[in-house]
Amino acid sequence: MSKFVSAVTRVTAKAQTKAKSAWARILTAGLLSTLAAKPALADLPTVEGPTSSGTGTGLMGTLSGHVQDGLVLGGLVLCGFAFFKVAEAGLVTFGEVRNDRASWTKFGSIVVVGVVMLVAVIWLLGKSAEVIA
User: Most CB within 10 Å of its CB: which of 8, 34, 87, 97?
Assistant: First the structure.
């Protein structure tokens, strides 16, 4: 009879452990689903409108302001590209002067023309930003 009692005790202990484990799982799943279902109540900042034309109202005014800002940003990218091309031409010409394949006059003319071109691009960019806005 003692073997029977010890077997029943073991089965009962395993059943109690599984029941506790099942309840723990149910409780954990319920707690996680409750916490995941609640909205996050963060104090988010308000979205800023476009900077170039803040006069428009509604969706179309905001959209047109963002398009204008995008065009100005595209002009700035073009200006940066022009700056790098002028710098590249100046460095290549300087290398040629150092290797006696070009004269200092050519280097000076490349630098002067490059600076004039950059000033013209920046001026045109400013004028186009005024015209777009």
Answer: 97
Single out the residue of 85, 71, 93 nearest to residue 118, CA to CA. 85
What dihedral angle (degrees, nearest 10) is formed by the CA atoms of 80, 86, 87, 93? 170
Write phi, then psi, for 44 (nearest 5 degrees). Answer: -80, 145
Amino acid type, 131 = V
Amino acid found at 54:
G
pLDDT at 108: 95
| Contact assessment for residue 107 and residue 97, using Cβ atoms and an 8 Å cutoff | yes
Q: How many CA atoms lie within 13 A of 11 on its CB side?
A: 6
Tokens of 44: 């988010």
Q: Which two tokens stand for residue 26?
A: 């149910």
The DSSP line for 80-119 is: HHHHHHHHHHHHHHHHHHHTTSS-HHHHHHHHHHHHHHHH
Report the sign of the C-alpha dihedral through residues 18, 21, 27, 28, in that order.
negative
